[in-house]
Amino acid sequence: MRRRRSHVLWLGVPYLLYLGALPFVNKVRPVVFGLPFLFLWLLIATLVTPLAIWLTWRGDKRGSAR
Which spans are transmembrane here (predicted)? Predict the structure, then answer.
């Protein structure tokens, strides 16, 4: 029997933030909190990455307990 592993899709979030959206956010203006928009975007992507990994780990741990 095959388990559903939809929680692994969380690993696509950092990929989309870093590479998928990069052509759309590659701008110096606007400046947000004194940072160029691209720098702020990469900072947010870096902070979201551990969250996505944790959500994947939690889903995998929950799925193996069944």
Answer: 7-25, 31-57
pTM: 0.75
- Our CA angle for 54, 58, 61, nearest 5°, is 135
CB 49 within 8 A of CB 65: no
Q: Please give the Cα distance from 47 to 15 (Å, whole number).
A: 13
Contact 45, 14 (CB under 8 A): yes
**Residue 42 CA to its chain's centroid (Å):** 10
